[in-house]
Predict the 3D structure of the following.
Amino acid sequence: MVAFVLHAHLPFVRHPEREDYLEERWLFEAITECYLPLLKVFEGWQRDGVSARFTMTMSPTLMSMLADPLLQERYSKHLSNLTLLGELEVERTKDDRTFAPLAHMYRHRFYEAQEKFDKHYQRDLIGAFRRLMEKGTLEIIPCPATHGYLPLMRLQKEAQVAQLAVAVDTYEHYFHREATGIWLSECAYHPGLEDHLAEFGISYFLTDAHGILYATPQPRYGLYAPLRTPSGVAAFGRDIESSRQVWSREEGYPGDGDYREYYRDIGYDLDFEYVRPFIHPEGLRLHTGFKYHRITERDSNHKEPYVPAWAEAKAALHAGSFLFNRTKQIEYLNGVMTDREPIIICPYDAELFGHWWYEGPLFLDQIGRQASQVGPTLELVTPSDYLKKHPLIQPSIPCESSWGAEGYHEVWLEDSNHWLYRHLHRAAERMIRLSQEKPNSEGLQRRALNQMARELLLAQSSDWAFIMKTNTTVQYAVNRSVYHLNNCSLLYQMVTGKSPLREEIVRELEEVNPVFPRLDYRLYSGYTNK
Amino acid sequence: MLSTFTLALLFFFAVLIAATAFFTFSWYQKEARRPPVSVRKTNYAEEFANDLTPLVKPKRFDQELAPLPHRYEQNAIALLARSPYSLYAYWEVSAHMEDICKSDCDQQAWSDSPYVLRFYNITATSNLEEAPYEDFYISNHDDHWYFNNLQPAHKYCFAIGRLLPHRFVPLLVSNEATTPADSPSTIIDPDWPPLFELTYEYNSINRKDMGESPITGWGITSPNGAWSISKREVEKNP
């Protein structure tokens, strides 16, 4: 058995006041390059009777953005802009035999995306994913509300529980069912966390490889069977071999010379005046999505033109190679694990497929199609399927771990981001205290407390600490953290009577940051709406 | 003939004067009905083309963002695990707490005493009187610390305090924190004995080879973040 798990997540980025935030493009690019192509792959399997089943995780912040009418409208406008650029590119390259077919390809792709998004799905992508789950192709699970890094919240259990409660509630709202499993943000786990998961009826989660390999007692089957934690929740571990084949710096498939080069884009390459209407209004060049070159050589700046047919063939070849390796792995494991069927867990970021690795969705498509031809040795299942078939699993406590660099918490707690935690903890303490002291708030005070909880959750997003560490859009991440923490303080001052409780401030924050409208601040004192 | 011409001319002038008088009267009447002209401030944004005087854009969320406070004037202390070999600590001692502790001591000795982090290894015992410890001298301005070179799967805590000539006065004591394991457990469940073929060396070297973290770890064409706001763009627009 092989279980693919695609983790789809973006932080909540929604700025109604202006349209020139580059960060909103994260969502737009992910929809065009990842989520729509993935839907096409899974719907194709359904149409053609491919029996493969995949697991997808969808973060509550991503669900909230996909369902947001303002962002939907802006995305549609973004696509219109791209189709216009497509027309211009077709005209510009009409005499160029190398690039003209590529311009046509992109124009077609963006028109198709617009037609799918606006007309076919009626802008409801969550509904499209939900239907795939209802028909059995997908098992979708949530992750904590704002992708909060739970081990670094462990001093306030209520804050951890609130992240989980909002996750489960948002999931049920959009997918009309209870969550079977959960993706812990960054696969970050510490012993004891499973007790909270059990409270919400969650039956499994995933850890990195060493979370299972260093479990106590030692696991009998290594990575190839789940463990049962003391609360009864199962823990599955990331497989090392299959991860290496996709992620490895040296061996990873996405680095093949035939695949599309991400960093060559007409947004950077063409004349400034030509691309100006399609880049940032202040003249900042950026990726438009029109990329005409292939990787060619990984460490060289020389790039040859992209040839889609070669890339497509290579994706099929790599899918075959991946499955061949899994088949050999399973044959070996079957010889060793005579008393139990092995399961190989292959988790990846969903945004890898299509965004960074343009041909990623083609690769996944081929995985599903070729696997169904390999035979019963290689069955693509979900962790739930495995648990149903093998309910008796070894009791053990996984090791504290994450899937970040070095395998623990250093990425999210180091020199660039450590300053954040004292403020996050302080804000959480205040939220918990107010929730306990004012359990029956009504009217404006209740709205202020609910909004304070939203602001706290948004500040807790692991993305901000991650961006600070990876040194990308650091200023944005720092400012988002400070902004939400300041909002928490402002609301705290108002609720505790240290400043006047002003309706217009509460209303403005509700309008600007309307994430999780069903949230109840009493979550922080153990209240659940179940 | 002449008198006829003169009469016609007079008639023409009479009609001209009557028409002028009529239109003048009508204009006065119309003007009298108009509301008085309001005196208003000239809005230059309306007067000039956008490219000369761009319209003021709405504020960004981070415009005029107030910095977070350096101190809350409340006690706070925390110890968090980072890795099998490292813990992170932060603290804030309120002036009130200092005053309480100071009141039992010699004032001069107190003001001469350094701040110390007393770091306890409480793996074997949680009794701080018995637990082995190490002292770290810190400055008055320090508010966080990394305890490095620790043992995996060991339990620790720390206290911040003042080191007086003959005794340590703790101001705050932290929570307990356990470093994660960095190797397979030595505990075996007899009902689930490990299969020898499935136990193998797993360390940070093969971690790097399998790809480290989501997105950043895979070194394909050196993506630096999860999205297309690449380092190139950030450098151009710091």
